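Chapter review: from sequence to fold.
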Amino acid sequence: MSDGDDETAADAEETAASDESTDATPETLNERLDDVEAALEDAETEADLDAVESDLDGIDADLDAAELPEPDEDDDEAEDPRAELESRVSDLRDELGSQRGPYGSDVVEAVEDARSTVVDTRWTEQGESEVVDVVSAFADAVADALDADVTLDGDDEEALTAALDDAVAAVEDASLDADDDADTIASLLEATDDLDAGLDDAQEWDDLETNEQLMAEGFYDVLGHYKDYPPELSALKQWESLGRVDMVLLAKDQLQSEFMQEHCMDALIRMANPEAFEEMHQLAQRRDKAAIKALGRMGAGADAAVETLVEYVDADSDPALQKVTLRALGEIGSTDATQPIADKLEMENDNVRPYVARALGLVGDTRAVAPLSDALADDDSDTVRAAAAWALRQIGTEDALEAVAAYGDERSFLVQHEADLASEALGDDDADADAEAPTA
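The token string follows.
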């Protein structure tokens, strides 16, 4: 027979198969599904299950191609043969899946999940000891089941994860067969069940009540006797006096009452310790005013927050946020903030403009002398003009002091007072210059 004849015969067989599937009826398809169901019940090996799956795939294909009667749309109780057959195929596939395995890969997946639990969970001191015992027992079980070198060598996280990684490697190297090694796989899965149960029972940090967590961290160790109520407040004050930012932050994280949160933030503001920068910066990014104030008190130690804070300089809809931000930027003292701050000398809110001027004075950038001099000369608010005069005096260069000293006869007492101080400063400078001048 020629190649052409072979192709013709194959086409004919394919056409016949197509015609057969098209001629399938609900009755014939259900009969075939009955046979699959019986075969599934009798299946004992993965090969048997593969044959069942192949038969199901064939029925599924024939069902898709079959021209089955459509239910009467006007009859709500009419049966849909296609839907019923598809549901039956789906149920048999689920049953097929439940009968497959277990496999070595199921063991590997369970161990990897346990490894993630060990790494991602914060354990108490008691829990750490319990986890060590659980992982050690599991390593021994794997070693016995596979005659492999799997042991726990140490009690830290690195040793724990290494033992679990060794267990995974041992299972993968064993190339376990679902049929031939069914007993071994079953014993390994039993061991992983014990591992999961042991990790679930081990004491996690989140299992402790708040006061237990604080006690475990030694938060109450500084209390000789209670002076304030609640005792947490006494402990907080003691840790603040000792400069322990870590303990103040611990209290802030654990004690969620509004009362203690306020006291914790007040303590952090007073401490002005850059060790609290990350926590305060995160809060500042959510426009927390107390955190912004704390950043300002840190001074140059909070320089990394300038980019965040500069964004709030333009928050005209929230003057309170602008005020605390301007003060903080001034205290931090970064010249990167000079231009954004100086631009706000033209804003309409004359309650915020004084903060703008004072912030420029605190930064001390000489580039601010010109805009501050203009504000001193032209601003409609004497409060703003006095703030500009103060800022120029803080910058303290000769041209800045001269710009202020020129207002000695000013109608505004505050501006005149700044002018007198500037004149005194210039006089002191002149006196110093005379003292240093060489004699003839």
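Two observations follow directly from the output. Residues 3-99 form one domain. Residues 36 and 301 are 74 Å apart (CA to CA).
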